[in-house]
Amino acid sequence: MGEQLISTFEDITERKKSEQILVKLQTAIESAKASIVITDNTGSIEYANPYFTQVTGYTKEEYIGATPKVLKSNYHPEEFYRELWNTIKSGKTWEGEFYNRKKSGELYWENAIISPIHNGNNEITHFVAVKTDITQHKKSEERFQTGIENAPIAIGIAVNMKYVYVNKSYFKLTGYTPEELIGRDITSLVAPEYLNVFTERATKRIQGLPVESSFEVTIIKKDNTRATLLMSASVIDYKNEKATFAFAQDVTETKKTEKELENYRNHLEELVEKRNKELYEEIEIRKTTEKILIKSESILKQAQTIAKLGSWELNIRGIFGKYTPRRPRNGKPSLFEFVNY
Fold this sequence. Notes:
Blueprint: H1 13-31, E1 35-40, E2 45-48, H2 50-56, H3 60-63, H4 78-89, E3 94-101, E4 107-118, E5 124-133, H5 135-149, E6 154-159, E7 162-166, H6 168-174, H7 178-181, H8 192-207, E8 214-220, E9 226-238, E10 241-250, H9 252-307, E11 312-315, E12 322-325, H10 335-340
Antiparallel strand pairs: 1-2, 1-5, 3-4, 4-5, 6-7, 6-10, 8-9, 9-10, 11-12
């Protein structure tokens, strides 16, 4: 018998597809702008992408076989790491922030998500960590927090109508320390006559309903004195929850000054009205007096003519009037000459 050739065929289409997917996945991991680290189930590093080296400064020869402890800065307590390990060993994903140290000694912040990898028997064989450098974000956040903490205006944040943060100026304004206010209901400081309106506005605001962002409210401070506040409030995202972010300014003295100015203005208006009335009465008196004097002058002239005593002029333009003697046209003496004679 001649030689026989036996051929076998195997469909490797799916395998080729899988290989293509793996190539794509490897390319994505290698070029990712995040540190991707894979360790065995004891924590020894088996793989890290190029970005890990770029961030930490450790080369492949230095980190393979090592553990992530090479990045430890001693910023976090041991309990922090125990909780992390207990979480991922139980098959859950851990997410949090590390304050780590680079090979150069420089400290940096990174956000990390660490998940377990299981085999076909559902056993944990590896852990994969995806970490993002958030140093600049943290610095910006710290500057923002420092600015808020030292702001000259009172600032408070509330979640579910309870204080979760107040700055130094809020303490100065109310007299309550942050420890006394955190967890306390925001309506607890509001004066009774403002309570219903304040609560209604706060509820509508957090529900996204239309409501004025700026308003005035009176509070009762720790020493039981009252203060009028000009407040501005808005809704923000605070640790994945809707929160009320509010500014408060004490306008008690301003409102007091406004009240004093209003009282003074009312007083001036009363004085002006009174003086206007007096002037009107004076003018009426002058008009009446002038009419009397004009009539008196007419009567006087008639009397002079009848008595043939000469004449004189009466100046009625003054209140009291002045007599101006003049010589008569007929050559007879005036009244003053006649009397003196």
